[in-house]
Amino acid sequence: MFGKSTLINKMSKKNSLQIGNKPGVTKSNQWVRIANNQELLDTPGVLWPKFDNKDISLNLSFIGSIKDEILDQTEIAIELLYKLMKDYNKNVLERYKISNEELQEIGDIKKENMYKLLNLIAKKTGSISQGGNVDEEKVSRILINDFRTCKIGKITLERI
């Protein structure tokens, strides 16, 4: 089984198109010459439709209905953390053993402060690289997985 880009690379006898074993590698249209007067157009595959409501898109990404591989997981984790801190901050503080003093150091629950909170969660979960830097990818995966497996608690994303 292979995708359009792989097929076009084989037909053109070149590796001019980037390929991968996951959806979403092709980001834009690209023409490839396969013969003197023949070209094929490689296009992105059919992905999730663009939702007019950002909250719907985010909620679908939080629960894994949109493939993780096509999204920036750190950005998704920041958005999730912001939503959780607004509506379920006790759950987050308990899960990651964050004290009130540590929370005060981070500041108000604003989106721009969520990176500081994510960094604190990284320290609490051991998501630190050998150089002592925060491994944003690892801590983002941990946060999102903890949410999806209800380790942060029973949470609803939408309210009536």
Descriptive notes:
The chain has 160 residues and is mainly alpha-helical. Helix content is 45%, strand content 7%. The chain contains seven helices and two strands; from the N terminus they run H-E-E-H-H-H-H-H-H. It has helices at residues 4-12, 54-62, 73-87, 89-95, 100-106, 114-125, 136-148, and strands spanning 30-35, 38-42. It has a two-stranded antiparallel ribbon with strand order 1-2. Strand 1 and strand 2 form a beta hairpin.
Give the termini separation: 44 Å
Indicate the CATH class of the largest domain. Answer: Mainly Alpha
Number of continuous helical runs: 7
Beta content comes to: 5-15%
The parts where pLDDT drops under 50 for at least 5 residues are: none
Q: If classified by CATH, what would the architecture of the largest domain be?
A: Orthogonal Bundle
Largest sheet: 2 strands, antiparallel
Task: Estimate the mean pLDDT confidence.
Answer: 86
Large-scale geometry: elongated
Rg, please? 21 Å
Order of helices and strands: HEEHHHHHH
Give the beta-strand count: 2
Name the structural class.
mainly alpha
Strand order of the largest sheet: 1-2
As for the CATH topology of the largest domain, it is Conserved Hypothetical Protein Ylqf, Chain: A, domain 2
The residue fraction in helices comes out at 40-55%
- How many domains make up the 3D coordinates? 2
Feature tags:
160 residues; mainly alpha; Conserved Hypothetical Protein Ylqf, Chain: A, domain 2; 2 domains; two-stranded antiparallel sheet; 7 helices; elongated
